[in-house]
Every structure is written in structure tokens, then in C-alpha cells.
Amino acid sequence: MTEGQMTLERRLDVSGINFSYNSHPVLSDIGFSLGPGQVLGILGVNGAGKSTLLKCLNRILKPHAGTVMLAQEDLLCMTPREVARRVGYVPQRHTESRLSVYESVLLGRKPHMGWTVSQTDYDIVETLLTQMG
Q1: pLDDT in tens, 25-84
Q2: Which end is more exposed in the chain, N or C (fewer Cβ atoms within 10 Å of the end residue's Cβ)?
């Protein structure tokens, strides 16, 4: 797939994810698969591991075991920049200034940009916002 192609035709396969903070296990043998167009809700009480799981999926945290495959590519073996080109993550809380929707989507282009924002980046943001309505 080339960078300019806008497609949701990706499959996510998560298998055997384990993670602990110090000696306190938080995630144990987590697994699921999502095909194109599928949505998964992650529910649980505070401290259940929802944010930890998301951080393990995109390598903010490194799971102690398991695999995360996106379109048959192992995200856990990629560099942080390679992961950022494939997966977006917006934390629940941040100390930065509030961004508009447009700016937030444009921020997702950061791993693909050089020193400046190109017309291609703006075009991709416009296309995505139009597709999402």
C-alpha cells in the first residue's frame, strides 16, 4: 500500500498480550481479531488495564509477551516511527493546548511529513474529513 492510498482494508490480530507494572499483572493472555470495518469497545472499571492495552498495541509500552499484527505486519517488531505511520493514538488527557478537529487529524500526518506540511498532507486531511463526514 502506498502512502497516498486511503483505505481501511486492514486486519488487526492481537494474541497472548501480557503486561505487568513491576510485579502487578494487568493484562493476561489478551487476544482478539478485527477485520475491515469492525469496531471493538474496551470497557472496564478504573485500573482494569484499558489504557495499558492500547499503549501495548502501539508500543508506547512493551508487552512482556504476545503479538500485535496489523495487515500481517508485526507492530511489536517495528520502530516507533514505523508504528506511528500505521497507528494513531490520542491520550485521554494532555497538557497541550486544545486543537481543532482539522489540526488533530493533521497531527496524524506527522510521521509522514518532512520539515513542513505539504499540499499532499492538507489534501489527505481534507479527504479523511470528507470521508468521515
Answers
A1: 999 999 999 988 888 999 999 889 999 999 999 888 999 999 999 888 898 888 888 888
A2: C
Distance separating alpha carbons of residues 47 and 70, to the nearest angstrom: 26
The DSSP 8-state label assigned to residue 86 in this structure reads T
Radius of gyration from C-alpha coordinates of the chain: 16
Domains of the chain: 10-90 (3.40.50.300), 94-133 (no CATH)
Q: What are phi and psi of 17, to 5 degrees?
A: -75, 125
The per-residue pLDDT for 82 is 87
Residue type, 121: D
